[in-house]
Amino acid sequence: MLTWLPRIGRPLERAVLAANWDFTFASEGLTELELVEARAGVLKGGIDNSDSGVFVERITAPQRLFVLGAGDDAKPVVSIAALLGWSVSVLDGRAQMGSRGSVSRGRAGSRGICCVE
Predict the structure, then answer these.
(1) Whole-model pTM?
(2) Is-contact 99 114, C-beta < 8 A?
């Protein structure tokens, strides 16, 4: 995500670079030259924010954690991972573990217990 900070006579503008370095979104006020220069700066390893007024933010998918087994030792692991914003899935082959809800679901992105045979 690239954000052009507001200046006198110019509003805040944004552009989104996909993993393949193509722009998936750009504010209407951005010129082709500004977009090309911003992409080149990102590819070189960064943009000097003080001169360009462009803020670069890398947004990545949350970490995923698969916990195999829903015993008592899994509870703190799931809780800590959920607090970190990770996507957590708990897998256990014991059907009674799924019905009992022995591991808390945590935050959004966490999954409950899946029984695997």
Answers:
(1) 0.52
(2) no
